[in-house]
Amino acid sequence: MFTAMEHFRPRNERMTKTRFDPARRRTLLQLGLGLLACGGPGIALADTEPRPLRVITLFQGATDCAVALGIVPCATVESWTEKPIYRYLRPSLQGVPQVGLETQPSLEDIALLEPDLIVASRFRHARIAPLLRQLAPLVMLDQVYEFKQTLALMGQALQRQRQAQTLLTGWQRRIDRLRDRLQRHFAGSRPLTVSVLDIRADHIRSYLPGSFSGRVLSELGFDWSAAARSADGVSIKITSRESLPVVNADIFFLFLRADSPSIHQHYAALTAHPLWQRMRAPQQGRVYRVDGVAWSLSGGLLGANLMLDQIERLVIEGPVIDGETA
Fold first, then answer.
1. The CATH number of domain 190-325, selected from 3.40.50.300, 3.30.465.10, 3.30.1490.190, 3.40.50.1980
2. DSSP notation for 257-315
């Protein structure tokens, strides 16, 4: 779906082909970003200045959204798992270097790459923002999981507002279609409640409506338990099996945090527990194993679309085997 990729010319080549020197280029970008931050009309450089091509993305959702917009960053941060880059992004990001971790990017590596634009988040990078601004114009997102805002603001900063709007319109159309299909599939049922469960070695993380996956599921018309709706943040931690009823719902979407023996053992013990077996999703055969990267770590439009792919395949089209969808 997203095939138009823009590769970067060497910085010295770009500098010889433009009549603007680097200082003026940065000044124009900074003025445009200032208008964007103040709620102005965006960056009005399209007629006089080339697009900022050397982009560094410092969180996973920004990397995802850059690829969706047809931009190959000159550097990214290391992925949380499937290192160094998530498998679903590797075809688009072959050869792209990493500048450290999302929680601790290397300022030295960023400086050596001489970026035209840095995309970061206040959630992760508020402390180092003044230093990042000394290296390049900076776009700061509030959160790392609000993918629509990330896509829209990156579209403005990269002078790709039209592409961003087209992607968001396509997303809404796909949400509307899938929501209608789900309503027909569960005809006669009240809005079904969901829980998104991240199985770890010694506890469960249950993601809330405000999380990345929770926002997508809410758009599809799924409901949440009273406990999930009243909780703050993006997830709650379940440390004892006696607390399992807190996540009781009509549908479970779950994934294992890693492919390790301890996590598999924990999951096997959970599913054998009487409290698990009494919950509605296991009883109704609506426990669906999904991809944890797409559902909790991707943070962008492409990852969100992978979520929709899995919901279509597992919930609407897939057979249920032994209480779980294969």
1. 3.40.50.1980
2. SSS-HHHHHHHHHHHHSHHHHHSHHHHTT-EEE--HIIIII--SHHHHHHHHHHHIIII
